[in-house]
Amino acid sequence: MIVREARADELEAIEAIEKSAARRFLGTDAAFIAALPPTPRESLERGLTDGLLWVAEDGGVLIGFILGVALGASLHIAEVDVALEAQGCGVGRRLVEKLAEIARRQGCSALTLTTDRDVPWNRLLYERLGFVLVDAGIPDELRGILDAEAHAGLIAHRRCAMQLDLTPTVIPGLTRNPS
Asked: Are 82 and 63 in contact (CB under 8 A)?
């Protein structure tokens, strides 16, 4: 599997991945997600232009994608999806790691996202990757995204914001001695 920048001729395949991934919600109390429209084409095109739309490819077949957007001093994961048949194999993790790498290169202090707090495979994946819930003091930019999601039909009390701190940790008294 490789992770690479998306191309303009792959937008239909990216939309198909999003629809495939949404099928995982069928049979859960979040089944309505499968009926929501995919990410607007304009958002995908902006991701292409900004270098923030990346895909996972396996054997020449697209199996996942991630879309980032600049959000203040952070980079925000607007969408990340893995085709249903490829889920559980580390594809989502690799995509998130790629966007975190890009965010660090751009000097961002954090990688943020919003997700369903009650769907276990979403929030737990992000927690394993180091994301923490942002419960108090949600920045205005993230609050605006949560509000827009509620307006688009997602259930507001189920949504949460999460953040991965990208600033280097300095531990007093610890020095590295390069050999």
From this structure: yes
- Tokens 């994961």 correspond to what residue? 77
Q: Which of 70, 71, 77, 80 is nearest to 50 (CA)?
A: 70
pLDDT of residue 56: 98
Query: Where along the chain do its domains lie?
Result: 2-165
The predicted-structure confidence for 39-51, as pLDDT tens digits, reads as follows 999 999 999 999 9
In contact, 156 and 146? CB cutoff 8 Å: yes
Q: How many CB atoms lie within 10 A of CB 173?
A: 4
Low-confidence ranges of the chain (pLDDT < 70): 168-179
Topology classification of domain 2-165 = Aminopeptidase (3.40.630)
Give the H or E element holding residue 49: helix 41-50
